[in-house]
Structure to design on (326 residues):
């Protein structure tokens, strides 16, 4: 759970900061299982002169309280991490790591949520009052009717003609899991170009998160090697703990984003004439865990006509209408 702090105020930075603050509070639900969320803090190490200069600008900007962001020298970072960190770092004490699979499974248990597996929505059609979904299940097709529909299927949003104009981009990435903790670090998440998550209760550690333009099985080994190279730039001892080990699992997928790197969240143009709406919530890139809670609340406020969690100028930079064709 992280965000990239800017050195100057802007609408985009206000959204990223508020989304992260909202998410860090949202995940503090005491009922959330321990395997889903660990507020252990996140340390973003600056391994080169350019990033170290950026850290200095963050301090000078005076935009962030110490409860949000602290700048540490190498000695302070090493003490906090419990291992040798060779550079200065930004530390986010309220951040941490999440297990998306455990998180989604827990939320899906809500009595108001019905889960349909092995099913595909083939078509979304406007009715006089609401929408009709044509759904292909394991053995038969069914029709579902509802007042509101939210498209939140990332790159597959183009499956539906109403959203085909949204210029989503896929960035391939990989996360490696190592079973049997090799790292003694039980401190914060440590990241730079990539990241290392502290051992979970089951002894699994994750290293990520590479970016590739194309999808090729030949890139699996290259991505794992890149992860260790990025980790070595942060801390040689941490990288050495994984050098002669092989991942127990390698998970690869595409991050969904758009050119301006802001989410697409709001009403799809042309759907407001029905009694209900067709909404979209996609393009969160590598920051989905930080951005989706406030974006979901934003859609809820529109649908139920309650006060919005975001100021009007921020809503404008998220709106799906920014890609509408005339």
């Amino acid at each position: 759970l992280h965000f990239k702090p800017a050195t100057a105020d802007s609408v985009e930075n206000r959204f990223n900061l508020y989304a992260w603050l909202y998410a860090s509070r949202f995940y503090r639900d005491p009922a959330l299982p321990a395997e889903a969320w660990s507020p252990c803090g996140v340390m973003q190490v600056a391994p080169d002169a350019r990033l170290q200069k950026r850290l200095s600008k963050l301090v000078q900007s005076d935009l962030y309280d110490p409860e949000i962001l602290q700048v540490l020298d190498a000695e302070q970072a090493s003490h906090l991490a419990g291992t040798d960190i060779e550079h200065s770092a930004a530390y986010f004490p309220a951040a941490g790591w999440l297990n998306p699979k455990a998180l989604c499974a827990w939320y899906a248990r809500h009595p108001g949520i019905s889960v349909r597996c092995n099913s595909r929505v083939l078509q979304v059609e406007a009715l006089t009052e609401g929408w009709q979904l044509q759904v292909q299940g394991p053995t038969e097709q069914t029709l579902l009717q509802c007042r509101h529909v939210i498209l939140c299927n990332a790159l597959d949003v183009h499956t539906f003609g109403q959203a085909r104009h949204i210029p989503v981009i896929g960035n391939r990435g990989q996360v490696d899991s190592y079973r049997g903790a090799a790292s003694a670090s039980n401190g914060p998440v440590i990241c730079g170009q990539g990241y290392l998550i502290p051992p979970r209760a089951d002894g699994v550690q994750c290293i990520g998160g590479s970016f590739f333009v194309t999808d090729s099985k030949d890139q699996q080994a290259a991505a794992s090697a890149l992860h260790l190279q990025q980790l070595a730039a942060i801390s040689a001892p941490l990288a050495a703990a994984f050098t002669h080990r092989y991942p127990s699992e390698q998970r690869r997928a595409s991050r969904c984003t758009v050119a301006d790197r802001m989410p697409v969240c709001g009403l799809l143009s042309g759907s407001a004439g029905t009694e209900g709406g067709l909404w979209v919530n996609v393009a969160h890139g590598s920051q989905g865990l930080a951005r989706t809670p406030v974006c979901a609340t934003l859609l809820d406020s529109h649908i139920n006509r309650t006060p919005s969690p975001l100021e009007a100028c921020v809503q404008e930079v998220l709106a799906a209408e920014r890609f509408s064709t005339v």
In short: The mean pLDDT is 89. The domain at 11-102+169-257 is CATH 3.30.9.10 (D-Amino Acid Oxidase; Chain A, domain 2). Residues 288-304 form the longest helix (17 residues).
